[in-house]
From TrEMBL:
UniProt-annotated location(s): Nucleus
Family per record: Belongs to the rad1 family.
UniProt protein name: Repair protein Rad1/Rec1/Rad17
Chain spans, region Disordered: 243-266
Principal cellular location given in the protein's record: nucleus
InterPro entries attached to this UniProt entry: Rad1_Rec1_Rad17 (IPR003021)
Gene Ontology BP annotations: DNA damage checkpoint signaling; DNA repair
Gene3D superfamilies: 3.70.10.10
Pfam families, A to Z: Rad1 (PF02144)
Keywords attached to this entry: DNA damage, DNA repair, Nucleus
Cellular component annotations (GO), alphabetically ordered: checkpoint clamp complex
C-alpha cells in the first residue's frame, strides 16, 4: 500500500526557515493537500501562525488522497469526497529534527532576540559549513491516517530517520477569522522596517501595542508601545509620496520617544529618520463609526512572537478588518544560494520559490486593558 503522502526536498533549510517562523508553539496542526502542507500554530485562541509549505519546495511531491463514498437515503452512491489528512505534531521536535546535524539557521533576527526557538550550541563542528547547509536532502512521509510523520534527512552520506507521533486535532479547532470582505486597512512595506520598529518599541518593555492609521492627517501610520514600567515609545511612518496625502512628501519615517519624567510631564525627542519610501501600499478606509482614524490595541508579547518571520521576510502586508483582527502576512523569497532575509539586489537575484507566513492577532478588549493596567500598578 502506497503512503498517503511523500515529499522530497533537496534543501531542508527552506523547510526549517518557514517552520521556525511559527516556532512560538510546541505543537502545530498539519493538513496535507494536493498543493502542499499547511502548518498552523496558536496560543490561547488569540494568536495564530500559519505557514504553508508549497509543493514547489519539493523536488518530488506525491499525495494519494483517500476518498470516502457514502450512500444517500435512496441507496445510491454519493460523489466521492476527498479526505485531506489532518493531524497534530510536535513542532519543537520537528524543528530539532530538521537541524539534526547541529547546523544553526543562518539568519538570526536583528534588533531583538527571538526566544521562541530552542537555543543551539554555538560551537562549530564539521557540519557547519554553509555548503553543507544547502546540500541536505529531506524526505517527509505520512503512510496512513494515525501513522507517525516520518522525516529522513541525508547529508554527506549520513542518513537520519525520525518518526514523530501524530495526534488527533481538537474538534473545536478553527482559524482566527479574518473578514476578507471587510478589510479596512492594508499597508505593504519591507518587513525590515516593521522589524526595526518593533525592536525599537521593545526596548521600553511595553505591554500593549497601539496601532493608529489615518489617510487624511498625521500621524498616517503609527505604532506605539504602552503600559511598560520604563517609558512609552512611538514609531511614526510617513506615507509614500505617490499617495499624496499629508504635507511630508519625502516618504520618510520618524521615530519618537516619549519618556516619562515624574508622571506629570513628558519630553518628546525626534530620533534618527529611517529610509525613505516606507510604504508600497497604504489603504485606510474605516467605517463611519470609527471616524477617520483606525485605532486598535494588541498584546505586545504576542506581536513579539512574529519576530522570526519579520527578520527573514522580504515584505509584509499589514491588514485589519472591522472586528479588529490584525493579519501580518509575510512574503519570504527563498533561494538555494541566498540565505532567507538577505535583501535582493546588488548582484543578488532571487530565483527560488516565494512563500508566505501569516500571523493573526485578536485585539484587546477594554476590560483586558484595564486588567493589564492594574497589574502594572501593582508591580
Amino acid at each position: 500500500m502506497e503512503p498517503l503522502f511523500t515529499g522530497v526536498s533537496n534543501n531542508a533549510h527552506h523547510l526549517y526557515t518557514l517552520l521556525s517562523c511559527i516556532g512560538f508553539a510546541s505543537r502545530a496542526t498539519v493538513q496535507i493537500t494536493p498543493d502542499g502542507l499547511r502548518f498552523s500554530a496558536e496560543e490561547g485562541r488569540v494568536l495564530q501562525g500559519l505557514a504553508f509549505l508549497d509543493k514547489s519546495l519539493f523536488t518530488s511531491f506525491t499525495f494519494n488522497a483517500s476518498t470516502d463514498t457514502n450512500q444517500d437515503i435512496s441507496g445510491h452512491d454519493k460523489e466521492p469526497e476527498v479526505a485531506y489528512p489532518h493531524f497534530v505534531v510536535s513542532l519543537a521536535a520537528l524543528l530539532e529534527t530538521l537541524k539534526i546535524f547541529g547546523i544553526n539557521d543562518l539568519s538570526e533576527p536583528n534588533g531583538f532576540r527571538d526566544t521562541n526557538l530552542p537555543q543551539t550550541n554555538p560551537v562549530s563542528s564539521a557540519f557547519t559549513a554553509p555548503a553543507l547547509l544547502m546540500d541536505r536532502s529531506c524526505t517527509l512521509q505520512y503512510a496512513s491516517h494515525g501513522a507517525p510523520l516520518s522525516i529522513a534527512i541525508t547529508e554527506a552520506g549520513v542518513k537520519t530517520t525520525c518518526e514523530l507521533v501524530t495526534y488527533e486535532p481538537e474538534d473545536n479547532e478553527s482559524d482566527i477569522p479574518l473578514q476578507r470582505d471587510a478589510i479596512i486597512m492594508k499597508v505593504i512595506m519591507r518587513s525590515a522596517w516593521l522589524h526595526n520598529a518593533i525592536g525599537e518599541l521593545d526596548s521600553s518593555t511595553p505591554i500593549i501595542l497601539k496601532l493608529s492609521a489615518c489617510a487624511k492627517r498625521e500621524p498616517y501610520f503609527a505604532l506605539s508601545g504602552a503600559g511598560g514600567p520604563f517609558s512609552e515609545s512611538t514609531v511614526e511612518f510617513s506615507v509614500d509620496q505617490h499617495n499624496e496625502v499629508g504635507p511630508d512628501q519625502s516618504g520618510q519615517s520618524q521615530t519618537h520617544k516619549v519618556l516619562a519624567d515624574d508622571g506629570s510631564s513628558r519630553a518628546r525627542a525626534t530620533r534618527t529618520k529611517m529610509v525613505p519610501t516606507v510604504t508600497e501600499t497604504f489603504l485606510v478606509a474605516p467605517p463611519s463609526s470609527m471616524g477617520d482614524r483606525i485605532k486598535q490595541n494588541y498584546r505586545f508579547a504576542l506581536i513579539r512572537k512574529a519576530a522570526r518571520a519579520m527578520s527573514v521576510a522580504n515584505k509584509v502586508s499589514i491588514r485589519g478588518d472591522r472586528q479588529g483582527v490584525l493579519s501580518l502576512q509575510f512574503m519570504i523569497e527563498l533561494d538555494d544560494n541566498v540565505p532567507a532575509g538577505r535583501p535582493v539586489g546588488a548582484g543578488v537575484k532571487a530565483v527560488g520559490p516565494v512563500c508566505f507566513v501569516d500571523f493573526r492577532f485578536v485585539p484587546l478588549l477594554d476590560e483586558e486593558e484595564a486588567e493589564m493596567d492594574v497589574e502594572v500598578d501593582d508591580e
